[in-house]
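Q: I'm building a small set of examples for a reading group on sequence design. Run inverse folding on the following structure and report the sequence directly after it, with nothing in between.
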C-alpha cells in the first residue's frame, strides 16, 4: 500500500483499502475465509479541507453555459447533493413521483439512501423523455448511460468562466447553501449520506450564527421557566 501511495493520492488508496476490507468481511460472512487480513491496515490521512462551492450568480452562469443534455444533470446535482456516479446510474425505477423521492440503492457506504425531490427536480425529471429501450434516465441515443460527462462539464465551466471547480464540488454547493439557509447540520448529514458528522462539520463555518440561533431557541423554550424582569413587572 505504501508503494501504491507513491503513485496516487492517499484518498485513492483509502478507497481501495476500504473495498478490500468489505470484500474480506463478506467472505468471512460466507464462510470462505477465517480472518480479514486487512482488518488492521490503517487508512492514510486525507486532506478534506478543500471546500469550493458556487455562488448563486455562478450557478446561473454555469447552467446557461451548459449543453442541453447536461442541464438536467446539473439541476439534480445542485438540488439533491448526489454524487456523479449516483446520478448517471439513476434508473426510472429509482424514482417515486407520487412520494417525490429518489432511492439510491448502491451508495458509497453500501447503504440505502432516500432523497426527497423538491419541485425543481420533480419538474425536471418529469420532462425527460424515457428511452424506449433503456431504463436509465440519463442516456445517449443508443440507450446506454453516459459513461462520463467530463468534457461537457469542462466546456460549460470554461464558457461560464468558472475556475478551480470540479463536478464533485456541486455536492459541496448543495450542502453549503443548505447550511447558509439555516438548515441544521444533522439534516445535511442525512441528505449527503455521511456516516460520520465530522464529514459534515466542514460546512459549519458557513453558518456563523448557528450557535447563536441554538441558544436563542433554548431561550424561547425556557421562557415559561424564567421571565425577564420587564415582562414580570408588566404581568404584575
Amino acid at each position: 500500500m505504501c508503494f501504491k501511495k507513491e503513485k496516487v493520492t492517499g484518498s485513492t488508496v483509502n478507497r481501495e483499502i476500504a473495498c478490500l476490507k468489505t470484500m474480506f468481511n463478506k467472505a468471512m460472512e460466507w464462510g470462505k475465509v477465517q480472518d480479514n487480513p486487512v482488518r488492521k491496515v490503517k487508512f492514510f490521512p486525507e486532506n478534506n479541507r478543500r471546500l469550493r462551492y458556487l455562488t448563486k450568480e455562478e450557478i446561473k452562469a454555469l447552467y446557461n453555459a451548459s449543453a442541453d443534455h447536461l442541464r438536467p444533470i446539473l439541476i439534480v446535482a445542485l438540488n439533491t447533493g448526489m454524487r456523479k456516479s449516483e446520478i448517471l446510474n439513476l434508473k426510472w425505477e429509482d424514482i417515486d413521483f407520487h412520494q417525490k423521492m429518489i432511492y439510491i440503492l448502491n451508495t458509497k457506504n453500501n447503504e440505502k439512501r432516500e432523497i426527497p425531490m423538491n419541485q425543481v427536480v420533480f419538474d425536471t425529471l418529469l420532462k425527460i423523455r424515457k428511452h424506449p429501450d433503456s431504463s436509465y434516465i440519463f442516456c445517449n441515443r443508443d440507450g446506454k448511460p453516459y459513461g462520463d460527462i467530463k468534457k461537457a462539464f469542462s466546456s460549460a465551466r470554461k464558457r461560464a468562466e468558472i475556475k478551480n471547480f470540479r463536478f464533485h464540488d456541486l455536492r459541496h454547493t448543495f450542502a453549503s447553501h443548505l447550511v447558509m439557509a439555516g438548515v441544521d447540520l444533522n439534516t445535511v448529514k442525512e441528505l449527503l449520506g455521511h456516516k460520520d458528522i465530522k464529514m459534515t462539520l466542514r460546512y459549519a463555518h458557513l453558518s456563523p450564527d448557528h450557535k447563536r440561533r441554538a441558544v436563542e431557541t433554548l431561550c424561547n423554550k425556557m421562557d415559561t421557566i424564567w421571565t425577564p424582569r420587564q415582562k414580570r413587572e408588566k404581568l404584575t
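The CA atoms of residues 78 and 174 lie 5 Å apart.
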